[in-house]
Specification:
This protein has about 80 residues and is mainly alpha-helical. It has helices spanning about 5-35, 40-55, 75-80, and strands at about 65, 70. Strands 1-2 form a two-stranded antiparallel sheet.
Length: about 80
């Protein structure tokens, strides 16, 4: 026979733990948003933007497909296409 009292005790504890986790998560997000409003965050955003732009740069492409769907990996072939 299952001890229903223990189930409800554990279930109640689980609910309390979830509520505490939500409170700490909200505190962490508040701190994050406060840091994002500072001058330092602008620097971080600039770095992230430049990194993202570099990944888009077509000069860094190492392989593409040609008209026949063959993969070109040599730089000379890629430039010719």
């Amino acid at each position: 026979m299952v001890n229903k009292g223990r189930y409800y005790d554990d279930h109640g504890a689980k609910i309390v733990v979830k509520k505490v986790a939500v409170v700490f998560k909200n505190i962490a997000y508040e701190r994050l948003y406060q840091r994002l409003e500072t001058k330092e965050s602008e620097r971080v955003f600039k770095l992230a933007k430049s990194k993202e732009r570099r990944t888009r740069d077509l000069g860094n492409v190492m392989h593409i497909k040609d008209e026949d769907s063959k993969v070109l990996v040599e730089k000379a072939q890629i430039k010719e296409r």
